[in-house]
Structures are given as structure tokens and as C-alpha cells.
Amino acid sequence: MNKLAENLKANRLKVTPQRLAIYSYLASTNEHPTVETIYNHLKEDYPAMSLATVYKTVASLRDCHLIREFNLGEDCNRYDANSDVHAHLLCTKCHRVFDYYGDIDLKHVIYRLKTDFGFETSALDMNFYGICDDCKNNNDK
């Protein structure tokens, strides 16, 4: 049995073709899709799958910590199967999202949150907003 199926069963979720397809799609892309994008990508291969199924599935996968859900100030959430600690960069012109794995030393901030407020940090989302190189170069032309 593959690791995804084991994790779904460990979280008391049925292993369904739709859940496997949605997770597989998310794991295979760096695009950080919305629910609608996931649905549109998979609907040809899974014509009986509804948009509601995709919404419920990403919520289940998120609750099991198999994917990350985040919102970059848009009208919808985006999803990422990459659970490694990283930041997201959002181009405010083309709305593409990029992963950033470079150095972000937040140990001091997390330490201060704990000492000043007694706050235990359990998760962290860091997003940067700006213009990507492609959009910047297209403006220069």
C-alpha cells in the first residue's frame, strides 16, 4: 500500500480514486492551484466528480496535514502538497505563485513571541508580494 493510502486510512478517510487523483495532482505541480483549477484539470478523467467533492477532499487533506491551504489576499484559497517549510511569492500582476526556500531566520521572532507573550508557535505562513521577473521585463519593453 502506498504512503498516501496509509495516511488516509490512519486519518479514518476512505481511499477513493478522487482523493488519490486530487492529491497526486497537487503533488505533481508547483502552480499552487485553486479548487476550481484542480476541478478543471481532473474533470475530464473523473466526469462524475463534482466541484463539491474537490472542496471536501482538499479540506480533508488539509485537516490530515497532507497539503497546505493558504490565501494570498485573493478571492480563493490555494493549495500546496509540499509541506517543507517555505515562503510563497505572489506576483501582483500575473498572480503566479512561486516557492521560496532561501534563508528566512525567524528564530529570534519566534523566541520573542514565546518570551514576551507566552505564545507557542505551531505553524508559520510567510508570503511576499511584488512583481515577478517576467512581468517586470515585459513592462520594460
Quickly give the structural class: alpha+beta
* Corresponding CATH superfamily of the largest domain: Winged helix-like DNA-binding domain superfamily/Winged helix DNA-binding domain
Q: What distance lies between the first and last C-alpha atoms, to the nearest angstrom?
A: 53 Å
Question: What is the residue-mean pLDDT, rounded to a whole number?
Answer: 88
How can the largest sheet be summarized? 3 strands, mixed
- What CATH architecture of the largest domain do you see? Orthogonal Bundle
Query: DSSP helix count?
Result: 6
Tell me the radius of gyration.
18 Å
Could you outline the blueprint of secondary structure elements for this entry?
Elements lengths: L2 H8 L6 H11 L7 H8 L8 H13 L4 E3 L7 E3 L6 E5 L5 E4 L6 H11 L9 E4 L2 H8 L1
Parallel strand pairs: 3-5
Antiparallel strand pairs: 1-2, 3-4
Helix pairs in contact: 2-3, 2-4, 3-4
